[in-house]
Design brief:
Order of helices and strands: HHHEEHHEHEEHE
Number of helices: 7
Shape: elongated
Strand content: 15-25%
Helix content: 55-70%
Structural class: alpha+beta
Number of strands: 6
Distance between the termini: 57 Å
Strand order of the largest sheet: 4-5-3-6
């Protein structure tokens, strides 16, 4: 009983450290969520030891319980991921929850030092990597709906994207009540977006531009 209590207290402390970082960052899964996931996975792992009567941590049955916890976390993580206008949000939150579940399993297995080191690594990644990401050129997926006067616009757009270094992800025609619309999906740098759109507007075949 004392062993389980120590593990749960440690889960609350270490899971709370990760949760505080998420809470201060105003993320959807904050302090309580991370503590509950860490404590829950710790309890499942500790419970496996109790049920199995002290069987080794690496036994097939204990590993089966651990894998079930990780699999179950996939459903919770999927619920935190949102896709809107071809942009995906919440991947970091989902990954954090999955990592915190793993932290709980480490604690439940009794590897306290490894759990402390693991918590430190997760905290460093969450705190410092956003600063590093600002140094990396950011790209966004943008969907252009271009009303065109002719199919020659396809070749012009491809040449324009190639000249400016933008990546063409998808290009196709569709028709609506007013005629042909060229759908043009690219991965572009926000710093070049205005210049690229001005160049599109200057093409002779483009009649109307709408951006999703």
């Amino acid at each position: 009983m004392l062993d389980v209590i120590v593990k749960l207290v440690l889960a609350v402390v270490l899971g709370g450290i990760i949760g505080l970082e998420r809470e201060f960052g105003q993320k959807p899964a904050g302090l309580r969520t991370n503590i509950l996931i860490c404590a829950g996975s710790t309890m499942m792992m500790a419970l496996s030891g109790i049920i199995l009567g002290g069987a080794p941590v690496g036994s097939a049955d204990s590993l089966r319980i651990a894998s079930s916890v990780i699999t179950g976390m996939g459903f919770i993580g999927a619920g935190t991921i949102i896709q809107a206008h071809r942009h995906v949000h919440g991947l970091t939150t989902a990954s954090t929850l999955w990592a915190v579940a793993g932290l709980g399993l480490v604690i439940g297995a009794g590897y306290f030092l490894i759990a402390a080191i693991y918590t430190g690594i997760l905290t460093i990644v969450l705190l410092s990597f956003p600063l590093v990401e600002h140094l990396v050129p950011h790209r966004s997926i943008v969907r252009y709906n271009l009303r065109v006067a002719g199919i020659e616009a396809v070749d012009e757009l491809r040449r324009l994207a190639s000249a400016t270094g933008e990546k063409v992800d998808e290009i196709f025609f569709r028709r609506d009540a007013n005629g042909a619309v060229l759908v043009f999906v690219i991965t572009e740098r926000p710093s070049r977006a205005r210049s690229f759109r001005d160049k599109i507007a200057s093409l002779g075949e483009i009649v109307e531009i709408r951006i999703d």
